[in-house]
Amino acid sequence: MAEPVWSKYIHPGTILEQVQNTAPFLASRLHPLPGPLIAMGAPPDGFLNVLASAKDIGTVEDYFALCCSAHQATVATFVPTDVDSKIRGILWNETRDPQVLGRMAKFALQMQHWTLDGISQRVTVDPELGLVSGHNGEWFSVASGGLGRFLQLGLDEPFTELIDAELKREAQAFLNALRTPGREIDTMLLVVSITHNVGDLDQGISFWEGAGQHSEQKQRFNRLAHENKLAYGGIFQHIAGLYKDCLSAEGHRHYPLRPIKPLRQSPTLLLPLGPFFDEWGAIIGGSPLLTDSDRAEVLDALLKGCKKVDNQFGYFRAMAGWQNEQANSFQRAADRLPAGSKKLLKEPLMRQKLAVPRRSFESTYVKRVEALRAKLR
């Protein structure tokens, strides 16, 4: 009897435990269904159906469905499941069967329309085009991984035009924000998401072999934020330029906050897009889900994160927003800090950074957007 495909990778039970650990708030939304997991991808809640129903997994397509679903549920939490490489390339390469690949492709296409409700705060809304978030990049990486496998095997593929359409949609969302006075911070939030999204597209393409390496699609989609300067009118170069100049230090993985289990209680506590964390800091300061001891743990992690992560501003802004909007809560947390963190909080440079008003902090980003707006007018 052949061993199940997951025997070489992460046990399905372990993946489900990881989801429960980082997103326990999803438990009330999980309702088991009968049937193969690969058939449960229909939006908006396909990933929840898979997570609720996963058991006795033996086929590559059902394991693929589980990994995609776990990634959807956790990638915007504090501790994402570590299945990226599986869904971007490894599991696509586990089979040559066109029927199996076809079912995986159908599942991947459904992923694009899964809900983000209750699993992410890292979303920017375009009034006409809808949501743009890092989950669009996760879809890019899965779809591009599948595209490379279909190209390698000479199979008709369903991905090219959909990837192209999503790139155009995100580029247009950026231009819409850029051209609208008053949406400068939205523009920067889109810069964060879109730069990461085209990077995720590159990650899927990195698994391509054979015909995919020499395809028109690779020339069209690869390295959009880097040397592919002419693709899509060069708009991704402008986006990448803003990211490099203003936001690259915020692209870390928030390891300082990962051990803080009280932050995992509710989607309301999930981090938004950095470095604009003032409102999140105020939420931490006022949330009835957190005790003063919990808040002291968060404040301790933020202070230490400021020392560990060079040149970032997000953690300073979280503390500033907390202190400005929930001063009593901030002081109670500060009183409970370990001695070393109390000392950090009292450092002159720390006090100086926490005293910067939100408007003053954000004005730097507003001016950069206004400069690019004038340049592209």
What does this structure look like?
- By secondary structure, the protein is mostly helical.
- Helices cover 57% and strands 2% of the residues.
- The protein is built from 17 helices and two strands.
- The protein has helices at residues 12-22, 46-53, 60-74, 84-90, 98-111, 134-153, 160-178, 184-205, 216-221, 235-247, 278-286, 292-308, 314-325, 327-335, 339-346, 348-354, 358-376; strands spanning 123-126, 130-133.
- A two-stranded antiparallel sheet has the order 1-2.
- Helix 5 (98-111) runs antiparallel to helix 6 (134-153), helix 7 packs antiparallel against helix 8 and helix 13 packs across helix 14.
- The longest helix has 22 residues, at 184-205.
- The model has no long low-confidence stretch (mean pLDDT 97).
List the defining traits of the structure above.
17 helices; two-stranded antiparallel sheet; 377 residues; mainly alpha; single chain; 57% helix
From the spread of the alpha carbons, the general shape counts as globular
- Give the SSE string: HHHHHEEHHHHHHHHHHHH
Poorly predicted ranges: none
The average pLDDT score comes to 97
Radius of gyration from CA coordinates: 22 Å
Largest sheet: 2 strands, antiparallel
Using DSSP, what is the number of strands?
A: 2
For the largest sheet, list the strands in their spatial order. 1-2
- What is the count of helical runs? 17
Q: What fraction of the residues are assigned to beta strands by DSSP?
A: under 5%
How far apart the termini lie comes to 65 Å
Helix proportion: 55-70%
Classify the secondary structure makeup into a structural class: mainly alpha
